[in-house]
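User: Here's a chain of 144 residues. Predict its fold as tokens.
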Amino acid sequence: MNIVRPALKLTHDGALAVMQAALATATAMGAPQCIAIVDEGCNLLAFVRMDGARVLSVESATRKAMTAATTGEPTGHMPPEKASALAAATSGRMTNLLGGLPLKVDGQIVGGIGVGSGTGEQDLEVARAAVAAFARHIGNMDVA
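Assistant: Prediction complete.
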């Protein structure tokens, strides 16, 4: 019987690499964003509120990252009745707004990114660019 299991962990440097890709995309789009990156336990590793990003998007970006890291799924695709139940059951800590994506290595969730302050589509575009950069970094290293 195994009583422990090996686990990959997102590092602060990894979170910063994801952040840099998100910032570059948001800047190129001209859409100031709040960007949150969490580890698999929903612990905040990196956060930026770009100049001009909405103050209340600090919370939504963080909750998007937490939701993606917890569920392993993108945010924004849940039926409305389930989304309301999810928010209520978690005291608002989880959300179904577009802009949250999980960070995975070999199918294992190592974290999540949440982006907020633009339209849902802009938020998702920034998050996708960051996840693509993450995947390129993973492809360049030995994770075994």
